[in-house]
Amino acid sequence: MDELKAVRTFLAVAELQSFAAAARRLSTTTASVSRAVSGLEKHLDVQLFVRTTRQVSLTSAGASYAARIAPVIEDFDQAAHDIRSQSGSALGRIHVSAPMSMGMRVLPDLLSDFGDEFPGIEVSVTMTDEFVDIIKENYDLAIRISGPPDDKSTIWRKICLVERILVAASGSRFAKIDTPNALTASACLGYDANGGEEIWELRSATAKHSLTAGRTFSTNNGDLLARMVENGKGIALLPRFIVKDALAKNRIVQILPEWRPPDIWLTLYYPPYERLPAKVAAFSDFFERHVTDIKPLSTFLD
Amino acid sequence: MDELKAVRTFLAVAELQSFAAAARRLSTTTASVSRAVSGLEKHLDVQLFVRTTRQVSLTSAGASYAARIAPVIEDFDQAAHDIRSQSGSALGRIHVSAPMSMGMRVLPDLLSDFGDEFPGIEVSVTMTDEFVDIIKENYDLAIRISGPPDDKSTIWRKICLVERILVAASGSRFAKIDTPNALTASACLGYDANGGEEIWELRSATAKHSLTAGRTFSTNNGDLLARMVENGKGIALLPRFIVKDALAKNRIVQILPEWRPPDIWLTLYYPPYERLPAKVAAFSDFFERHVTDIKPLSTFLD
DNA sequence: CAATTCGTTGCATCAAGCGTAATAATGGCT
DNA sequence: AGCCATTATTACGCTTGATGCAACGAATTG
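YS: structure for the whole thing
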């Protein structure tokens, strides 16, 4: 038995003091109303109405139940209504995960502008260079810089290419390297989200060269890695925007520019939504617009 | 679709973070759980969970709905539980209708004793000599003194016989009447709940006599009628307990004692309950016990 | 790599809800 | 006073919707 419908029917009868009138309001038959009410009475083991064929009156138990349950039903419907209207409008809080290096450079401006445009959306940002489990950690969106994702349980959207270059400290012995064969495992510092080793697959116009970096040192933080390079500890494969300043100030230099690593992308990851909630879509669109048009990421690449 | 069951299922899944675990708890299949949740999602037009085959996680909309709706469901169930337990125990308020004359004599003591025995039951007494519509006026119980009831829409219970006698003022010309034929219409004062006329059907051992009283005066209040009789205004057919004092003080006398009117009864009327609520049954039983055993109505008849 | 577990979906079965209509009761209206 | 309309209930078929089973794709564990 549909208990909820029974209670709604009961309330209609209680208000209208008539089974027939309730049936008309609910666009059903008196038979249905009668069954619903007597079903509820059996379920609650209480007589709710005193009835003759011409009069219907609440028992005191019925009156007290009606008074008790009516606001509950109203609240129930209100909750459904709230959820429905909330999901359609861009309101609420979104949890965003972002990588440290990229986040520190791009997010301050972006979040300020976003807050101006969408004052109804609260944003909470967790910056980390680990690969988070979007689902388990309850993120609405994760910003990552990575190669093609192999995770089938998330959906993602490429925003733009992130140029990576091989760098070494100016004037160091590493800066003189001009052939991939000169790259020794101990000289290659690893950049890996899990702090493990990193495979470098370098392609020139005609050849390719593969080696494992990070045997002696690796980190999940690009800025730390850049500082290690500056200190002459070795060579790293880093997004250009991270080392932009150091390049400009000539503290580090690009090596082997004709050998290119595989493309990696600035990518947005979402939990496997059937369709994106409005507030997440708002942030997502704003992010893409901001990064590609308004204050393009290339700002960091030049 | 049973919306309530869907919400309950949703809450189980939300709590256990698993469709399969929820199915086990609810003693059903995962298929049923899956359908219930996706049905609710369609109904609310919101995605409640983000799911892969190995992980289930609430969306923020789902989390907010769960937080919102869980106390509502709890309240809903609590209301049902309250009603159920309330109806079984003798608690609450009962509305009683009682006639004036009888009520003034019997109720003060009775209600005091009842209050001692059932402190949980609040009693509200309306004293009136009109015939009230028990159902429309929302009484739980009506005490009446009347002949056999013709109302099919109430249930009733005879408590005891109420002896009625014909009375006249001592020393008046009416006191000398010794044959029914001497009763003139103008001398017979009516006692009628509706303030109308009253049919007297008198029976002796061998004969019967019928006449209409109340042509010149009638009332629905026995005490008023008794005072009219004392004042020598005529003859009335009254319950003995009303005129007990006046008889004892010899202000009025019984006439035609061998001619008896039809029996009338002290009767309890109830709304057409399928079965009597505990609190009403408690009052009803107490009333009967009190009137017939402890302080019998015959106290007023002797 | 095999095996298990998970959520979803198609399919066949079945029960529950529905409207119709008949019934008894009751109040209004003429 | 009696006819008529309206009311709540109940029995009867039918249809719709729910349910359980099984197969499937996906993903983790050993």
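YS: worth flagging: The radius of gyration of chain B is 32 Å.
IM: good catch. Also The first strand of chain B starts at residue 49 and ends at 51.
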